[in-house]
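Z., the sequence and structure:
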Amino acid sequence: MLPASRLTSTAVAQLVRSNPQLPAPFRDYHPYVALSALDTVHCAAFTLVTVLYQSEDCCEDLYYLTFAAGTQQLLDWRQVASRGMDGQWQAEATLHRDVIGRLVVTELVDESEDEGPTYYRDSVVIAYTISPQGHFRSTRLDSIRTNRTRTIQ
């Protein structure tokens, strides 16, 4: 079930008309997905909006959007985390702030080519910061791919 806090299709369409560079979940908005604004932080040069995308089918994504202060002019956006599963894919992300204030995201993604017992797991750790002008910077701190085998019962 989709949340009651779902942004209206009209509001999302207006945002996309003003900012066509928004990612696909904004451009392809329909009744079986939800975009919900979770938080808004006003800074001197920009406003940061945290948006949760939820699909009735499979997954959730967390986006950060920055807008020029007092406007709907998009400065930058990032998809910072994912969670869900669909077919031979599943993902889970954890987020925390490190000691110097960066948002550190660790994402584990399992994927296989077919329904057999073998698959691979990607583990990626990325640190995000926002410049004083509202632009995102990301630094890959670690990544590893491991081959795995499921126990089939």
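The mean pLDDT is 89. The first strand starts at residue 33 and ends at 42.

Let me know what you think.
H.
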